[in-house]
């Protein structure tokens, strides 16, 4: 079947067409019109669609007529957010989610997003949705760089142009804190209770982080508002996990061919899913336990495990795999040298972890290797390499600091940093160009290139590395790995290490 035939014969996804979809596609069995939007989600992307929105879709099958529907919000005037807006609005906010395992593909239609707002079209509509008394939880997937946090100092980046704009134009915000503050100020003026702010990004202590940053922003806007937020708003920490690659034209075609659905922006994900949330909410919450979410008093051990094992491994796979000329995660993992390196990195990190209730770390690490190796999940390395300046500090440097204190090997952690440094030169081991996609690309590439085999110019960027650049052992180990990458390439370096 050629692509035109399959797409032309596929059924355009919307509410009216649900009853005509093939029998192998699971569709919402609840009445979406009986659901009210108690949750506003900022940053609707692939991960939100495969994770929180899926949990809530499961929830509505058990609890019809719920008041925990999702109003999705896109803040950024980027092509991605415009495509998401166009797809969701043309499909009654429905989309296909395909779970891909080596054995089979399963498709279902997710109906939990009941409304979608695109802030550049109407900023006031977003503020109104957040200020609406029905909104009781605001969830966020705004990526690591969306928190305006200076890594080296832990302070709020007040000089960022987005922050400055939102402080000067409080009624026409463009950033997350501007919208949240505008809505919370409305609620305060009207005597309404605030909503809970639940960050679902890969940041250790994500609730603590957003509390500090939002409160600081609000204090600058209005000290009384800042104090009210600090006293009244809940900011639970949570840990999220599900590998979700970016949607490609091939995924759109696969959904049309295999399932007969014409979906402008489907999602593709792996079978594994996990969500652990600290149970501190100021305005109620769904009975998430009923659909497998783990509610706990302390998320910290879970998030340390996930960030330091899964996300750090992604950094090693992304940068080292790109240097070796690979495109996909599963290709990297099919190379025994790389699989061994990922396992050794995890072994290096393990002594820095706390015991995790109900989790066997050896089993967890084996499961990670299996997940990374799933050939159906065509997770591309550039996605992992995106915004390294925001990810490396959060995913790798905490383990390095702890290992330097504890003693013990730091070879594979240092190799990850060296691989990033070498990657920032902009060429792989075959001398093919690599595009660097990072908000700090200019300074990063300049420091990496000026140092060549000396990592000190890069490690001296305090905003990223803090005082780690002063550690002789760390600097020497990274320098040793960087020299090896220059001389022997990624594969040669791994062969010498193994």
TrEMBL record:
Q: According to the entry, what is the taxonomic lineage of the organism?
A: Bacteria, Bacillati, Cyanobacteriota, Cyanophyceae, Coleofasciculales
Which organism is this entry from?
A: Funiculus sociatus GB2-A5
Q: Identify the PANTHER family for this entry.
A: MANNITOL DEHYDROGENASE 2-RELATED, MANNITOL DEHYDROGENASE DSF1-RELATED
Q: Could you tell me what reaction this enzyme catalyses?
A: D-mannitol 1-phosphate + NAD(+) = beta-D-fructose 6-phosphate + NADH + H(+)
Which protein is depicted?
Mannitol-1-phosphate 5-dehydrogenase
Give its E.C. classification number: 1.1.1.17
Q: Which residues form the Mannitol dehydrogenase C-terminal domain?
A: 298-485
Give the top-rank taxon of the lineage listed in the UniProt record for this protein. Answer: Bacteria
InterPro entries found in the cross-reference section:
6-PGluconate_DH-like_C_sf, 6PGD_dom2, Mannitol_DH, Mannitol_DH/Oxidoreductase, Mannitol_DH_C, Mannitol_DH_CS, Mannitol_DH_N, NAD(P)-bd_dom_sf
Signal sequence region = none
The UniProt keywords, alphabetically, are: NAD, Oxidoreductase
A Pfam family annotated for this UniProt entry:
Mannitol_dh_C
Protein family membership: Belongs to the mannitol dehydrogenase family.
Residue ranges of every copy of the Mannitol dehydrogenase N-terminal domain listed in the record = 38-289
Leading EC class: oxidoreductase
